[in-house]
Specification:
Length: about 400
């Protein structure tokens, strides 16, 4: 097992993610390709300067527009909204791998008296009337219901009957999300949009251990390098230490992953065997690592394991959206900034959509970062692209104040 430096580990991850060097992903096809590489990207409905999935794509897909993701999801049907690492977006051809999850959801629904009849009523209405949301499905009242929206499930004491029935049919695979209006979901029959080759495909893994192997391998590919530790990058997978070691050992034996050590860290790291050529490029110094500045989404795959980020980058990030205002160190929706192979700061850039202006409410450089001409030029390019992504222009005063902001302690 070879040992690599922390800098080599950082560069490998960023190159794999498409966040350093020339753009590897461009346009709608590039967005589609990145989701396939990552396996899944997380969805979050909060829209301050773009929703999480959109922010994830804008940081590494050249020329990305929000309409591209909507088209991939709801017109092209190449991607689908469904559970994985919490609520996620993933390639539609992965549908068969979630068969056991859908079956478990169906079994759970059978334990709730009256739910079967409500499901049949909802399906009949949708077949006749098309896409519905919880406000347009004519099912009244409230019911006690167990949501399987996450792999572990979640109790609801009481829930709106229409919403509960739609989410139940969705987790069972009878419905998919037809489109969203803001964060409101409209559902329609899965059979109308998914090809038979996907919808009726056999479950590739009837064995739970084999399925966990597939999911762990996919998460390793999403981050680039993952270590043999309890990791939030494995969120949604029931992966206690003994099972994690067994899975990693199996993936090594099957030559699906390779192991390396990182200077100063006692546990091994793993990457997908298909990324061996990239690892060799990084180790040889032949990779094109031209610096590029990106604003990183709060739930970006790069940040799935914040302890790993701290160990490799000495950068600690906390999403302060749920932190009381008086206790925030930075801002409500502050994004980390990557430049070259470093996290160099954080930015809170909020579009005023009414006026079409991107306002930089705050920018904080990490300790030791010098505001050089090249850094400021990179910031200007990144802000220009971010403003365009949000259909805005930049207010020069806000930009200048941001660039001149003082360093703060980590």
């Amino acid at each position: 097992m070879i040992t690599i430096t922390k800098q080599q580990a950082r560069r490998f991850i960023l190159a794999k993610q498409g966040l350093i060097g020339p753009y590897r992903f461009a346009g709608k096809d590039g967005a589609n390709d990145y989701v396939r590489q990552a396996g899944c990207i997380q969805y979050d409905p909060v829209d301050v300067c773009g929703r999480n999935a959109e922010l994830t794509l804008q940081s590494r897909v050249k020329g990305f527009k929000k309409t591209m993701l909507r088209e991939l999801l709801y017109e092209d049907r190449k991607l689908i909204d469904y559970v994985d690492k919490e609520l996620s977006i993933w390639p539609v051809e992965d549908w068969p791998y979630y068969a056991s999850f859908r079956e478990r959801s169906r079994r759970m629904s059978d334990t709730f008296e009256g739910l079967h009849e409500l499901k049949q009523e909802a399906l009949a209405y949708i077949k006749e009337n098309g896409p519905v949301c919880s406000d347009t499905l004519p099912i009244e009242g409230e019911i006690y219901w167990y949501s399987s929206m996450h792999w572990s499930g979640n109790w609801h004491k009481k829930s709106q009957a229409a919403r509960s029935v739609l989410e139940q049919l969705y987790t069972e695979g009878e419905l998919i999300i037809h489109h969203k209006n803001g964060s409101r979901k409209y559902y329609d029959l899965a059979e109308k949009y998914l090809p038979d080759a996907v919808l009726k495909a056999d479950n590739p893994y009837n064995d739970d251990f084999a399925l966990i192997n597939w999911r762990v391998l996919r998460r390793i590919g999403a981050v680039g390098l993952l270590w043999d530790k309890n990791s939030t990058a494995f969120l949604g997978i029931d992966l206690k230490a003994d099972l994690r070691k067994k899975v990693l050992s199996k993936l090594l034996d099957d030559k699906k992953i390779e192991a390396v050590m990182v200077d100063g860290i006692k546990v091994p790291f793993y990457y997908r065997i298909e990324d061996e050529a990239l690892m060799q490029e990084i180790l040889s110094g032949n990779a094109n690592l031209k610096p590029r500045m990106s604003f990183i989404a709060p739930l970006d795959p790069l940040l799935w394991d914040k302890d790993l980020v701290f160990a490799l980058w000495d950068f600690r990030y906390s999403w302060e959206i749920y932190t009381p205002a008086s206790k925030r160190k930075y801002g409500y929706y502050t994004l980390p900034i990557v430049y070259g192979d470093r996290f160099v700061g954080r930015i809170e850039a909020v579009p005023n959509r009414k006026e079409g202006i991107l306002q930089v409410k705050g920018l904080w450089w990490e300790t030791g970062i010098r505001c050089t001409k090249s850094l400021n030029s990179a910031l200007e390019r990144a802000l220009s692209a971010f403003a365009k992504f949000n259909d805005c222009v930049i207010v020069n005063d806000s930009h200048n104040k941001a660039v001149q902001s003082k360093e703060i302690e980590k």
